[in-house]
Specification:
Order of helices and strands: HHHHHHHHHEEEEEEEEHEEHHHH
Structural class: alpha+beta
Low-confidence stretches: 18-28
Number of helices: 14
Number of strands: 10
């Protein structure tokens, strides 16, 4: 792999100052009325407006100029974690006693804005491997002792150490209850054996939050452990993925790894519920992100169609192209409306069982919208959307390679649809 360009860590980071600044325009397509909701999100409160400015600045200053190079290099600089923390982005929403930053009271609209703005780069793999703590840290905070939280949370939140969640196995992803990795108590340790795969950021992780079977079959026999990368018997290998090229997607093998008993998170056999609650947060983030990426495809298609001329007129002057734009807009508007409706319900205290089913449907809706818009935008740009790297089709090309992982990761379409029907008690 090429060595990714380093980004020097400098404090204070300008994006962390919450200073009013002009919003990046997003190109010639920005004056269209299809996506006039950014200002609506910012108007929820000044806290939400500050968050939107901060994350947008970080994406504009730190991600967009480098993401094409990092994709080709197959990774991003290690110090980007600390750079993101200095920018006021990495620590958003985490407990302040461990270094958390951002809004004093993080709500669902803050989470919506953060995921929405981060996906402007159209590099889901970058987000997945940069913000691995989004899914690996909640079980530590939910189940960990005060000593465990003091030992791990501060360094993870500040980007000094990274932690990846290790749940998915070669034998199954969404079927968590069928987990085959085992941890057997042996004196003052557990002996861990098994394999995890599709682990985002795993090649660079200092720690793994690992699910393993400590009891009988089914959901009631699963526990969670903090496993250090340097424990003897831990081995990692990188997966060669279709998209997410700068995400070090990893297979992690545990061969007789002795994990100290004090690294058990919570009681034995209490790991299933935290894993499942984590899924809802992950699916929400993926759905919001997929919708924003679909919108980016629409933006870039309009921008290109306005300047590209064919048969004596701008491309946008052809009815067939305008209709493609209208169809993409219809999908994006419908998906955004669905997501804001669910966000409003959750923010208002809606039943988690009901909203869990709705989130499952929203993930399907958003990822199919992304698939549709990536295809149609590619048709508008033609060969320009087939070229990796820079150029007017760069974001569309990345989106096309990420369609499948968004549709499968965090729960496949088939599992999501079945989950929704079960929640509806059909």
């Amino acid at each position: 792999l090429k060595q990714p360009t380093s980004v020097a860590v400098a404090r204070p980071h300008p994006c962390a100052l919450f200073a009013p600044r002009a919003m990046p325009s997003g190109g010639a397509a920005r004056d269209a009325w299809f996506w006039d909701w950014d200002e609506d999100l910012a108007r929820v409160s000044e806290s939400h407006a500050e968050l939107q400015r901060t994350v947008r600045c970080f994406v504009e200053e730190e991600l967009l100029p480098h993401v094409a190079e990092w994709e080709e290099a197959g990774g991003f600089p290690r110090e980007l974690h600390e750079r993101a923390y200095a920018a006021g982005v990495y620590g958003i929403g985490w407990p302040r006693e461990f270094g958390g930053t951002g809004p004093a009271e993080m709500d669902m609209w803050h989470k919506f804005i953060m995921n929405d703005e981060l996906h402007r780069a159209c590099a889901g793999g970058l987000n997945a491997s940069l913000f691995t703590h989004a899914i690996s840290l909640p079980p530590i905070l939910a189940l960990g002792t005060e000593q465990q939280k003091a030992k791990y949370a501060g360094d993870i939140i500040r980007g000094r150490k990274t932690c990846s969640l290790a749940i998915t196995e070669p034998s199954g992803g969404s079927d968590v209850a069928g987990m085959e990795t085992v941890a057997v108590r042996d004196g003052g340790a557990y002996v861990l054996d098994g394999v995890k795969t599709f682990i985002s950021g795993g090649m660079n992780a200092d720690y793994f939050t690992v699910g393993a079977r400590t009891g009988g079959k089914g959901l009631s026999g699963i526990s969670l452990f903090m496993v250090h990368r340097d424990f003897p018997g831990v081995a990692t290998s990188r997966l060669n993925t279709q998209g997410w090229l700068c995400s070090t997607t990893t297979t992690v093998a545990f061969n007789g790894v002795r994990v100290p008993a004090e690294n058990l998170l919570g009681p034995e056999n209490a790991g299933f519920l935290p894993i499942m609650l984590n899924f809802n947060s992950e699916r929400f983030g993926m759905a919001v992100g997929a919708c924003r990426m679909a919108r980016c495809c629409l933006e870039d298609a309009i921008s290109y169609a306005r300047v590209r001329r064919t048969f004596g007129r701008p491309l946008i002057g052809h009815q067939v192209i305008r209709h493609k734009v209208a169809e993409m807009a219809r999908h994006v508007l419908a998906t955004h409306g669905m997501l804001t409706s669910i966000t409003r319900a959750i923010a208002g205290g809606a039943d988690l069982g009901r909203t869990g089913g709705q989130l499952a449907l929203a993930k399907v809706q958003a990822t199919r919208t992304l698939e549709f818009c990536a295809r149609e935008a590619s048709q508008v740009l033609g060969g320009k959307a087939y070229l990796r790297g820079g150029g007017p089709g760069a974001r569309i090309e990345r989106c096309y390679r990420e369609v499948r992982v968004f549709a499968i990761g965090g729960g496949s379409e088939e599992i999501m649809l079945e989950l929704a029907t079960r929640q509806a008690k059909l």
